[in-house]
Structure formats: C-alpha cells, structure tokens
Design a protein that fits this description.
alpha/beta, TATA-Binding Protein, 8-stranded mixed sheet, 6-stranded antiparallel sheet, single chain, 2 domains, globular
C-alpha cells in the first residue's frame, strides 16, 4: 500500500474506481434502513466535517465508507505522534511529515474509496470563511475541540436553516446532539415543513462553559469514546441523508463508557427566549469579541492576525540563519528550540513550546512579522 505521496494537492479529483459499487455497498444496501434508494441518496449527498482530529477522522472514515458522495473536510492542524492512538485516518508517515490533517485524511480516503470527492481545507473555520466553506453542504458534523467554533457553526446553521450534529469526547465520556434549525421562510415551500425544529446549542447552553475546560491534553482520552461519539453522530447523519428525519434523536445524549453512566436531556423544541434561534442575533458570526490568538492545547498557541498569503521560499531564506527550516506548499516549520513555529499558507501560525501568549506573540513578531 502506498503510504506517502510526493506532492501535496489542494483537493481530490478521483479517477474511475475499479471496484463495483453494487458489491462495495452490498451489505449496507441489505440493511432495511438504507436499501438501494437510501444508498443512491447517500451518493448524492454532501457533508461537511469541521475538525479532522479524533472525532472528525472517525466520522469522515465512516461517511466515506458508507458512500457519501462529497465530503468537505476542514482542519487547521497537522498530524503528530500523539494523535496516532485514536485518529484513525493517520499513520506514522503522516506524523513524521507533519502532514496537515485535512490533506492526510483526503489521501487516506482516496485509498479506500476513490469514488468519494473530498474537498480538503487546511484552515481555521472563522466568520469570514464559514459561508464559503460550509455553504454547499447539506449537513455539518461538528468534530471541533472548542466551544468558540461550535457557537460559530450554530450561528451559521441557524441563520441558514442547515442541520448540524454536535459531538464531543473527553476521557471515556462522549456526548452528541442533533440540531435541526427552523428552515428560513424564504426557502422553497417544499423544504419549509421538512422537520420540526429542535433546540439549538445556545438554547441548552446560552453561554460557553466557564472556568478551566477539560481537554484531551489535560484529561486524556480513550479512542473508544471518540469512536462511540462518531458512530452515533454518523448514524444520525445517515438517517438524515436518506430522508428519515422522523427517526432523528431529539436529545443531548451523553454516555461514560468507563462507568456506564448515561444521560439524556431533552432538546425537543427551541427555547422561547434563545438569543440565537429565537431573536436571531448571530454574535459569533459577526465576529464579536473574537480573539485572534487562541490556546490550542498541547503546549501551543495559535496566532491568526494576518490574513495574507505567505511566500514560503522567501521566508525560508530569511529564517534559515536562525534555525532549521522545512517547507512544502501547505506549511513551513521553523525549529528554534525550545519552540517550533508552524506557518500555514494563509498566514496563520501555531507556536509550540509555550502556553504564554506574550512569548508566542513575540516570537511571531520577531520571525514572521507583525
Ligand atoms: Zn436556540
């Protein structure tokens, strides 16, 4: 099996597959919930997965194997050794190359289902690019690791009347919820009664969790919890994509695989006083109070202040006297122990080796430019 590919490519354009689709999907078609009609609908479907970490890799793998025709994958990060325990689309070669996760996922999917079109985007999902990145998909799967992005997805989904599925995993705990926003009134009449709206994320959680938030880097994570969350999330997605909206769960479900504790909170109907789906105030979409610098776990800081393209060759020439530089057409890595700066083509940088925003900002200003 081919494990690496010499060049990066922006997105896939799969050639004709030698595998017969009837044979490939035969066991799934036999399942009465899918059948030949459901399988045909999956082939016409377009799903966006936000985040290609553990949950996103599992969800993308399940969707691609199930035969969802188009996948849009969005991730801002690159593969590291500590990902291999649970991020099922990546291998050792990806970690050694520090391949961007969205691109590594695209390559791996092409190896097991070349009939799926994968649009891989190595970028941070932000207010200014969300419409372009998510506008064409009919369903959005959340596989992010932070509430800021989830509230942004929620704003966008409610504004557009586009369904999304929340999923989260930490330790041995997994949680997921389907969000079916009210279809906008300007939508065609055929869509206006497609579903009864559920609660949105902001109905249940008007404010992000306060205080220190547990992350995979502080609490650890079991691969099984991630795959459990992704399995439920993708099963709900299959129901939606095959037109069986009445079967969708209308609760926030959580399950601890270690203790077997389980809970379900009703999300049956929107909260009357919800600022987002009731008053339709989209503060996250408007970028209000959005930080340009964020802690992104594992001893690193992301800086995204300058949205401008980067000339990697010129940067290599400038940085080489100060440390080791490697680059390809998606990212540049500059090692200056104890710090590593990774700069992406859109001007975004991840500074590893510190959680101190002042230190990160100073390194960025010194070596990348302010
Ligand atoms: Zn709401």
């Amino acid at each position: 099996m081919q494990q690496t590919s010499p060049e990066f490519a922006p997105s896939s354009s799969p050639g004709p597959s030698l595998i017969d689709d009837q044979e490939r999907y035969s066991r799934q078609i036999l399942f009465s919930g899918i059948g030949p009609e459901g399988q045909a609908r999956l082939a016409q479907s377009h799903v966006a997965v936000v985040g290609c970490g553990a949950t996103g890799a599992a969800a993308a793998s399940l969707l691609a194997r199930a035969g969802v025709g188009i996948l849009t994958l969005i991730d801002r990060d690159f593969v590291e050794a500590s990902n291999l325990q649970r991020q099922i689309l990546f291998d050792e070669a990806d970690a050694l190359q520090a391949l961007p996760k969205a691109e590594a996922a695209r390559r791996k999917i092409a190896q097991f289902n070349s009939g799926v079109t994968v649009n891989a985007h190595v970028t941070d999902l932000i207010p200014s690019n969300i419409a372009e990145l998510l506008g064409d998909s009919q369903l959005i799967l959340d596989a992010t690791d932070n509430f800021e992005t989830r509230y942004l997805i929620n704003d966008f989904a409610v504004q557009k009347g586009k369904p999304w599925i929340y999923a989260a995993a930490i330790g041995a705990y997994a949680a997921t919820m389907n969000i079916l926003p009210r279809t906008p009134s300007e939508a065609p009449a055929s869509q206006s009664s497609a579903w009864e709206p559920t609660a949105c994320l902001a109905c249940l959680f008007p404010k992000p969790p306060s205080g220190p938030v547990e992350t995979c880097d502080t609490s650890g994570i079991l691969s099984t919890a991630v795959n459990f969350a992704a399995s439920i999330q993708v099963t709900e997605a299959l129901k939606f994509l095959t037109g069986q909206v009445s079967l969708l769960r209308r609760t926030l479900l959580s399950f601890d695989l270690w203790t077997s504790e389980r809970s379900e909170i009703s999300a049956r109907t929107p909260a009357k006083d919800c600022v987002v789906c009731g008053l339709r105030e989209f503060s996250h979409l408007a970028g209000v109070n959005r930080p340009h610098i964020t802690l992104c776990g594992r001893n690193s800081v992301q800086i995204h202040e300058h949205h401008r393209p980067v000339d990697f060759a010129a940067m290599r020439d400038r940085l080489s006297p100060h440390g080791e530089v490697r680059f390809n057409n998606l990212l540049l890595r500059f090692e200056r122990p104890p710090h590593t700066l990774t700069i992406f083509a859109d001007g975004r940088a991840i500074v590893q080796g510190t959680t101190d925003i002042t230190v990160a900002r100073s390194l960025y200003a010194r070596f990348i430019g302010s």
